[in-house]
Amino acid sequence: MRAILASETLKVPEGVTVRVKKREVFVKGPRGELRKSLKHIPADFTLLEKGRKVRIQVWQGRRKDLATIMTAASVFKNMFTGVIKGYCYELRAVYAHFPLNMTISENDTVLEVRNFLGEKRVRRVRMLGGAKVYRSNTVKDCLLVVGNDINEVSQSAALIHETCLVKNKDIRKFLDGIYVSARTNAVDDDGVAVTATHKC
Question: N or C: which end of the chain has fewer CB within 10 A?
Fold first, then answer.
């Protein structure tokens, strides 16, 4: 059974401007601008009240079409949070015998991991998009992946994790690797960057 009309209205936060063109969404805020294509979602996006609200509508939608409304709403909310507070993933290096040697290069966009399980191979991970990786000033063997796009930040953290996976050994015994320990915002409620006052 089709629903004639289903809709969801989102309020745009202060200091954020939204622009929609052919189902391409542009969100601009204090931390920068994000662009996302929602052409795969069969919905109409309309700006209301001079851009202070966003309305998502699906006409004649089946159950799966109606589910895309909340998907699009989540995309908008994540973009709003990204341009206001940003995203930060904390990763911790774990090792039993061979200490991991982590080097950051190319303007905080490339991470090099050496001596994983004593191997000579250098593992290089390049951050996606505008994400950057930093070393924690207060905690040993702790990395921070920071950016405005939650997809780029989370995928970059996942790439770091999967480059240091133990192969052909009992993973209950060999726990070496780099693991995501926490997910926070890049800026706290007081407007202070997490990279400046970080405690894992």
Answer: N
